[in-house]
Amino acid sequence: MPELTLRKIPFAAESDNRLRMLKARTGLDRNYLCRMGFCLSLEEPGIPTLAEEKSKGVREIDRYTLLGQHGQAYVSLVLVWMEEHQVPTSEATNVNAAFIAHMSRGVEIIAARVRTLADMASLVPRSEMAGSIPTEAK
After folding, report:
1. Segments forming the whole domain that contains residue 120
2. Fewer CB near the terminus (10 Å): N or C of the chain?
3. pLDDT tens digits for range 69-99
4. This model's pTM is above 0.90
């Protein structure tokens, strides 16, 4: 079974700057922002491109710090995405590249959609939000 072999997830300087800005605006830690962005990227049409990472100014985040105890769930999500988009999962390098590409695109997506903590609510589809409100509160 293919798996993510990276112990540290690299982020380009531009992504790192966006994460710093988002943390300042929302108060949310980078790992939460990355997890949300990753899921948003998986929902986007098309295959994300992995920009050339420059060794200078690149931040690496430990895999467990980034994904927490649910790391295998995020890996499973990217594997399902790869199968749906007919990206070969036979090599770990493909899984690593797809994972990094979605993390990078996710940071771009969330940076474009979120200015304040209140904007985070706009990331949840309305139908899901309505279903989570207790009936007494309606």
Report:
1. 8-137
2. N
3. 999 999 999 999 999 999 888 877 889 999 9
4. no
